[in-house]
Structures are given as C-alpha cells and as structure tokens.
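Before relying on records like the one below, remember that each one covers exactly one chain. Contacts with other chains, cofactors or solvent are not represented anywhere in the record.
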Amino acid sequence: MKMPWPPCLPGDSRGFTLAELLVTLMIFTIIGLGLGSLYLSSTRAMDEGSTMVYVQRQGTQIQEELARHIQRATVLEVDPPGATQSLCGPSGAVLSPGKSIIYQRTVGTTAIPTSPTTDEFWCVYEYKETTDPYAQLWRCQVSDLTPPKTCTTTPENLVASALRESPGLPIGVSGTCFTPAGTTCPPPAPTCIGCPMSVDVTFALDVKRSPTAGSLVGGPRQFGFNITIRN
C-alpha cells in the first residue's frame, strides 16, 4: 500500500529559494567588505600613528645630540651675508648658505681625557648622497675653521637609517638652517670667528614611500631649537 505524500501546507519553509540565498550572500558580502575596510583603516591609522611618534622621537634625539656636542664648543661659525655656498660639507659638494655650521671643541687626549688641550673642528650639514633617496643630516670633522671646508673623516649620519615600524622607509631631512639666535635664514651674521655664541637650528623630518609619494605623517614635522655654547 502506497503512503500518500504529506500535503504542502501554506507557510511550510523546509528550504530556501534561490532569491533568498542570493540576498543572504549579498548581505554577508557587504558585512565582510565593511569589516575588511574597517580593519584596513584601523591598521593604517595605527601605522601612521606609530610612524609619527617615531619621527618625533628621532627629531628629539637629533636635537639632544646636537645640543650635547655643540654646547661644548669654544667657537661657532655660521655663513656670512652674501655667501654663495655654505661653510662646509662633503668633498665636491656646494651647499646653500645656512645648510651647515662649523664649530671648535677643545677636548682631552686619550692619556689625559679630563684635561682639555686638543682642538677639534666639526661640521654639521644637510646633504643628499647619490645613494640616498632623501637628504640626511651629517656630522664630520674638518681641518680648521677657515671655510669652505670638506670632511676629513667619514661623515656620520645623525638620522636613523630606516623606520623600525616600516622597514625600508628612510626618514628624509629638509629645511635645515643654522643662523644666529633671533635671525632668519640664510644667516645675516657678519664674518667673524667666534660669532655668534648662540645659534637657532631648524630642520624638518618626513617619511614617504617614494620621493614622489605623499607624506606618511601628514607633512614634514618641523623642529626648531636654540643652542648656546657654555665656554
């Protein structure tokens, strides 16, 4: 004896129609895209925030290092008015006025480090090496205070070579200027040795994925401070 099929009652929902499946799939797709976009936005914001903090920390470290080194100087020299090039820099380079500073420090010898008897002459300058995508801030020794001078030692880069948070993205330097306290760039100081005793230092740091790309920190981060020698 054959059993009759159960009647199909109104409202019986033992499955989904194709239209219902498509609507459900669309809803889940929209939700997934929204969550993915939110995740990417949050990740990008966190990366930009950590990069900005790191750039700020780098600027502060450069400021502290320059102050520590230059405050012990006995002589400071900046570019005179009308100068066509800066005081010092790497061999073969012609830097714009205000891009460098020369200073003299008297230090102790290896045998008697606490008794300053030896003069050292130093140059700090902004320059873009051919192997670098951006300009950097460099420091080297020179032979004396008479400009123009070229480095006699291997230049030391005062900027971190790359971001720890974003490997391969170097920090670029721009807008560096060394000028007597309270004056503008290029320095309008008279030509003299031991003048001035106090200098204003400005520079900017930025991070880009490429030289033509936009800034990852909303534009160059400006730094400015004063250094007065203590001797």
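The CA atoms of residues 11 and 116 lie 99 Å apart.
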